[in-house]
Amino acid sequence: MSNTKTAITVAIAENDTYQSDLLVHRLSRFGAVEIAFTACNGEEFLQQLGNHPRLPDIVLMDIQMPVLGGIETTGILSKTYPMVKVIAFSQWDNIERVASMILHGAVAFVSKTLPVSQLVQLMIAVHEGRHQLSDHPYALPVLEKIKEMREKGQLLSPRMQMVLTHVCSERSSREIAELMDLSLDSVKGYRKELFKLTGVKNVAGLVKYGLQHGYLSPKHSRKEE
Question: Which secondary structure element, helix H or strand E, spans residue 102, and what is its range?
């Protein structure tokens, strides 16, 4: 199947535990793949990642998950562990969500209906650096949506927008964690990702960005004055 000498370690973040177990069972038949761990949402995934002795090579990341979704989790992961390659993994053909995953750090996208043998081939290609986004048969509309979103500044997910609002209200990370029912580490990851995505260096810059792109109401601008 491949010249890969050692198994590719794969972590799976999947909302549906039945689908996750089924995927683990099917992937276990391929010697090229070793499952590191599974998680049912982004927050659980990040916790397991921090406790695991070895970083996975590939992450199959479900886009829609409770607590912490795939887009937000991918953004945090790409900032903290940029060497880990994320593949957006979803059964919904939503171009905007897929584009958001790519913008937040995913390197490929695939449907959950893809045969497992082809999924393994894709993971090997991603791991070896041979995969290009343009290789996907539906790449063109996704690439066009990425360009559109970049031009319009539509980089922030709903949860990121909420964190932006709280940050611009001068709430601390601990206060935001309590308000949004998130871990402190998740909030800190969001804050770092906000500065990375917007290209600003302080809260005043975030306020300006939020106003320019329609994420904030004018009442926040008093912090900038």
Answer: helix 95-103
Asked if residue 210 and residue 102 are part of one domain, the reply reads no
Phi/psi of residue 169, nearest 5 degrees: -90, 10
pLDDT digits (tens, 9 = 90+) for 152-174: 665 676 677 788 888 888 889 99
CA nearest to 191, candidates 201, 139, 181: 201
Check pLDDT > 50 for residue 223: no
* Statement: the pTM of the whole predicted model exceeds 0.70: no
From the list 30, 40, 105, 100, the residue with the least C-alpha distance to 67 is 40
Whether residues 125 and 15 share a domain: the answer is yes
pLDDT at 213: 62
Range of the domain at 17: 8-151
Count of domains in the chain? 2
Cα separation of 5 and 106, whole Å?
25
